[in-house]
Design brief:
The protein has 277 residues and is mostly beta strands. The strands form 2 sheets. Strands 1, 2, 3, 4, 5, 6, 7, 9, 10, 11, 12, 13, 14 and 16 form a 14-stranded antiparallel β-sheet that branches. Strands 8-15 form a two-stranded parallel ribbon. The longest helix has 10 residues. It starts with a strand and ends with a strand. The N terminus is likely disordered.
Amino acid sequence: MILRCGLVGGNLVIALSLAGAAVAQEKRPYAGPQYQGKPPPLGAPDPAPQVTPAGPGMGGMPAAGARPTSSGTGFVVAEGRVLTNNHVVAECGRLVARNTAQVRVPARVLATDPARDLAVLSVPNTVGPALSFREAPPVRRGETVVTYGYPLSGLLSSGPTLTAGDLSALAGLRDKPTQYQITAPVNPGNSGGPLLDSQGLVIGVVVSKLNAMRTAEMTGGDIPQNVNFAVKGLEALAFLRANNVQPRAVSAQGPEKRNVEIGEIADPSTLHLLCYK
């Protein structure tokens, strides 16, 4: 296995998609179907893909026996719409989304934002229910957070993994204003998964972790612990709304939920994304 490393802060950040040893080293843009301009509003028919198929199955399911070259996580944000990281889909020719019921469906890239590292995908409406975002009150330092995703698929459990921690800072690496710093453990494959608050509302999108080896070189051997990052939920909301996706956004209220209850909320909505050449 190899890690796909981000180029932020002098290689200080590792992006959390999981790549197999067969992944080509050169950058490959997404070659599957894309839409020109903004995606259609929800409820409108998807337009025909604006690309020429490069081979059998392009834009649909991969050929029987094909093996994914990398994987990540995504989650349903509206009917037929899935949010993930841009780096999860940036090198894919075909995308497949798999839910926890082991149903596999084709996915297509609708829009991307490399600066925020976000992408929105089109999937069949039946793939899972949408998670709700937290729009208020403002997220505070020290809040308990939960991640849900598919880290190290093929090495660890093939099912989703839940981890818990705290929101430790309101900015990312070198004060990046679009991200949070969290202590919840994450690993390659967690990229694009939801970051949830104590009521099971989305407050972020898992994106990267601090490169411990690179940081140790810069600090004379000190190994950082539990320094991970997520794109802020309000940034994700702005991206989705700019692309004709209207997720449910609510105010957090009521008693806190146990982690097992938060996992039950996230489970049917969180997808394993498989990238094929």
